Amino acid sequence: MGYSAGHVREPFSSSSVVRQLDDCTFCPKMCRHACPVSATSGRESHIPQAKMDQLNQLRLGRSEWSEESTESLWACTGCRHCTMYCDHGNEPGLVLLAGRAEAVRRGAVPPVLARYADRFAARDERLAQTARQSFPGQLATEGEIGFWPGCDALDKNSADIAAALAVFSAVGVDLPIIDSPQACAGYPLLAAGYSELFRWHARKVAAAMRGFRTVVINCSACLHAVRAQFPAEGVRPGAEILSVGEALARRVRTLPKAVRRRSVYFHDPCHHARYCGIAAEPRAVLSAVAEVREFSWHGKDTECCGGGGLLPKTSPLLADQMAKRRLSEVQARGGGMVVTSCATCTFMLKRNAPAAVEVADLSTAVAQLTGTAYQPPTVAVVAGDDEY
Predict the structure, then answer these.
(1) Residue that terminates a domain, selected from 249, 274, 293
(2) Per DSSP, which regions of 230-295 are E strands?
(3) How far apart are CA 345 and CA 359, in angstroms?
(4) pLDDT digits over 37-79, tens only?
(5) pLDDT tens by residue, 112-143
(6) Residue 385: inside a domain, yes or no?
(7) Cβ atoms 290, 365 nearer than 8 A
(8) CA 113 → CA 103, 193, 385, distances in Å?
């Protein structure tokens, strides 16, 4: 199990984790500019070097494990931007996941994550039921291709799911939603430090996916989890795993013509661009129906929207500030449409967008720009105390 091979979390006691903690502890902070959490919060304790140093002090027994001493472990979205500027290829986001798992084992977690495993399970069950109620007759347990919409799309904007089904139909693909007792592929469990529960959950998700030759996923973090973290835990879905952008890029020549061509900005989800190497494909799709403009920080240098690492749960105001920071560039240029290819990114950016900025999921943007009709479901989603 290695970072260079699959960007996967390793056990807290592994030699790789220990080496990276020591490297970062004595590093002159060369990656500090790349951390969107510290850049937004302005806190020195949130720079990657400081977070790794704190975890190292905990490992060495120089600091006691407590809610207070582990606070900085949760100030990370796992965006992997710091790794892009590390001469040693260290992975603070993944090492901090190992630290979170140790914090859970020691009972040193933020109060806001109390009973998180139970709340995750309740949300998962609720959203699986939402999928069946919202899209009757559009679910399947097997086939050539199946759709995993992502729990945030089911919870926050099921209209994006309807748009995806309509766009794939327009390019000649029947895309049923995978009928599964699970709605989330499990990334939040890793981010919360529940590595053993993640392995159990992964087996359930993989079993649901094995009935399909290809699975299309609309959540960047869970896409990475299924592609890399599942196999690292000995779990293999047995299906080809694609993002929406990758799947549509294969059929870009059959996309309907744009009825109104306009300029749009594309926001790269961190887990797509930096973990999975997905950047050209969604741009190819957008370029077929719009003029694509770029953020200053884009592709592998994309800036996080604040939606990863459970930051919206542990530091919701900070997560929202990160989304606002991301959109401020478009606002300063006079506004416009921002398109992204991840349900979580869509939610974070949309709820923090200023009046001059419109945010759309990739499938929804394609549907709107090509005049592809779709009908959002009318089933009301009931919220509970189980929000991601």
Answers:
(1) 249
(2) 240-243, 263-267, 291-294
(3) 10
(4) 999 999 999 999 999 999 999 999 999 999 999 999 999 999 9
(5) 999 999 999 999 999 999 999 999 999 999 99
(6) no
(7) yes
(8) 12, 10, 11
Mean pLDDT of the chain: 94
* Rounded distance between C-alpha atoms, residue 28 and residue 36, angstroms: 18
pLDDT tens column, 21-42: 999 999 999 899 999 999 999 9
CATH number at residue 102: 1.10.1060.10
Is-contact 288 255, C-beta < 8 A?
yes
| DSSP of 12-47 | TTSHHHHHHHHHHHTS--TTGGG-HHHHHH--GGGS
- 269 token code pair: 């989800």
Quote the longest CA-to-CA distance of the chain.
Answer: 63
Whether the per-residue pLDDT at 383 is higher than 80: the answer is: no
In a domain, 377, yes or no: no
- Burial of residue 382, with CB atoms counted within 10 A of its CB: 0-12 exposed, 13-18 middle, 19 or more buried: exposed
**343 assigned to some structural domain:** yes
What single-letter amino acid sits at 165?
L
pLDDT > 90 fraction of the chain, expressed in percent and rounded: 91
Which two three-digit tokens encode residue 170? Answer: 């327009």
Asked, for residue 219, whether it belongs to a domain, the answer is yes
Secondary structure class of 210 (helix, strand, coil): coil
The set of residues, in sequence order, having a beta carbon less than 8 Å from that of 326 and lying 6+ positions away, is 267, 295, 303, 304, 305, 306, 349
Backbone angles phi, psi at 147, to 5 degrees: -115, 130
* Mean pLDDT for the stretch of residues 211-226: 97
Three-class SS of 282-314 = HHHHHHCCCEEEECCCCHHHCCCCCCCCCHHHH
